[in-house]
Specification:
By secondary structure, the chain is α+β, with helices and mostly antiparallel strands. About 40% of the residues lie in helices and about 25% in strands.
Length: about 110
């Protein structure tokens, strides 16, 4: 599956998170809905939260590669699936424009 590497992903403002050794729990304060995440999905969420300007799939995969000894293609596919699931649940937004050069060159 081909993924758009130019998409910028961002956490929506109504989402709160807490982390455990088993992963994370997300609370959508607008909807009053709670979601649990495994360790890998929690790492994706951490990357999203740390990037106030938004983050690309490639940048998330770069961060995950340091933690998980999995082939890059598999990380890309799994991360894209995770992001799409988060988008469908209304927890993140996706923007098809690229990050500004200042944000992508170390601002996040």
């Amino acid at each position: 599956m081909k993924h758009n590497s130019n998409c910028v992903w961002s956490v929506l403002g109504s989402i709160r998170s807490t982390y455990t050794q088993d992963g994370a729990v997300l609370l959508d304060v607008k909807k009053g809905a709670c979601y649990s995440m495994n360790v890998v999905a929690a790492r994706v969420w951490t990357a999203l939260e740390r990037s106030r300007e938004g983050i690309t799939l490639e940048d998330i995969v770069n961060a995950l590669e340091k933690r998980f000894p999995v082939p890059r293609k598999q990380l890309e596919s799994d991360t894209a699936e995770c992001l799409e699931n988060l988008r469908r649940l209304g927890l993140v937004s996706q923007n098809d424009t690229t990050l500004s050069s200042s944000a992508s060159s170390g601002g996040g």
